[in-house]
Automatic annotation (TrEMBL):
<dbReference type="GO" id="GO:0005576">
    <property type="term" value="C:extracellular region"/>
</dbReference>
<dbReference type="InterPro" id="IPR057885">
    <property type="entry name" value="Ig_VWDE"/>
</dbReference>
<dbReference type="GO" id="GO:0005102">
    <property type="term" value="F:signaling receptor binding"/>
</dbReference>
<dbReference type="InterPro" id="IPR050969">
    <property type="entry name" value="Dev_Signal_Modulators"/>
</dbReference>
<feature type="domain" description="VWFD">
    <location>
        <begin position="234"/>
        <end position="295"/>
    </location>
</feature>
<dbReference type="Pfam" id="PF25776">
    <property type="entry name" value="Ig_VWDE"/>
</dbReference>
<dbReference type="GO" id="GO:0009986">
    <property type="term" value="C:cell surface"/>
</dbReference>
<dbReference type="InterPro" id="IPR001846">
    <property type="entry name" value="VWF_type-D"/>
</dbReference>
<protein>
    <submittedName>
        <fullName>VWDE protein</fullName>
    </submittedName>
</protein>
<keyword id="KW-1015">Disulfide bond</keyword>
<keyword id="KW-0732">Signal</keyword>
Length: 295
């Protein structure tokens, strides 16, 4: 056995003749030519278990493998293992060196969210770790993802505790940088439901919509778990001839007739108007609530 050559194999995605390939690159710091490389491609079949999908011997400092949707699919975590040996004496091998696992498919950043019912928007990034290919000349180059939300963890699933700023996003081709070859963002907000229903868990799913690229068919990305922290709701009241209790507990009466601004938010488009009419007749000057309008 030769010593470790510090080949440092790395798996990266790239387009080759319009098709998505994975490339295993390795570079010995002090090669002793002539050298051959044996490259073993494998994927994670179950936790801790790998399945071999391809092997080749090459003099090149790289190896390509096409993502064909059969041997190599979206959703796979892929590894390459490289061994070097001298041409003509394959028994003198270096120690095999593993790349890190490369996940091919859709990722969400962050992978999970913990938010509160406070009206704040949280940015969720949807990215593809592989390039977006153009299957034909007249096709628009994009992958459209349909987004959906669902309630989890409740014995009787109700409406989800979260709202999204968009129902679908488009992933457009871009140069690969870091772990992203295409990205889009959507904001997630916890629904202020005026109910003391405890902390609840929802999830966000993404599904490719009618992709023309065969690679994207039958692919279901993993979901995002969103935990919503329940917050007590503020209450204010106006009742009978109107007695008013404010959010912070002040109590007073208002016997005026007319339309009034009961409450207005300074941070969002929300306000409530009330209308008070005379309901005391000739006996007393009394006003009662007769209408409400909320934006």
């Amino acid at each position: 056995k030769l010593t470790s050559l510090a080949l440092q194999p790395v798996v990266t995605p790239e387009l080759v003749q319009g098709r998505v390939h994975l490339k295993c690159s390795y570079s010995p710091r002090s090669p002793e030519p002539p050298v051959q490389y044996r490259v073993l491609w494998s994927r994670l079949s179950s936790p801790g278990q790998r399945e071999q999908i391809h092997q080749e011997t090459t003099p090149q400092p790289f190896s390509h493998l096409a993502m064909d949707g059969a041997n190599l699919r979206l959703g796979d975590t892929v590894f390459c293992t490289v061994t070097a040996f001298k041409r003509g004496s394959p028994e003198q091998q270096s120690l095999p060196e593993d790349s890190k696992g490369f996940y091919a498919g859709i990722k969400f950043l962050p992978e999970s969210l913990e938010i509160a019912e406070d009206g704040k928007e949280h940015v969720l990034t949807v990215l593809s770790t592989v390039p977006i290919a153009c299957p034909g000349q007249d096709d628009s180059c994009k992958i459209t993802l349909q987004l959906s939300t669902e309630d989890l963890g409740s014995q009787e699933p109700g409406p989800p505790d979260i709202a999204l700023s968009a129902c679908q996003v488009d992933l457009l081709p871009d140069s690969c940088s870091g772990s992203s070859c295409a990205a889009a963002t959507v904001t997630v907000t916890a629904v202020t439901d005026f109910a003391q229903d405890g902390n609840r868990v929802s999830r966000i799913r993404a599904r490719p919509v009618a992709p023309r690229d065969l690679l994207w068919r039958d692919y279901t990305p993993s979901h995002v778990k969103v935990t919503v922290r329940d917050l007590p709701t503020g209450n204010c009241y106006s009742f009978t001839d109107p007695h008013i209790i404010t959010f912070d507990g002040w109590r007073y009466d208002s016997h005026k007739i007319g339309t009034f601004l009961l409450c207005r938010s300074e941070s969002r488009a929300f306000q409530v108007h009330i209308r008070q009419w005379d309901c005391g007749g000739h006996r007393s000057a009394t006003a009662c609530n007769c209408g409400v309008a909320a934006q």
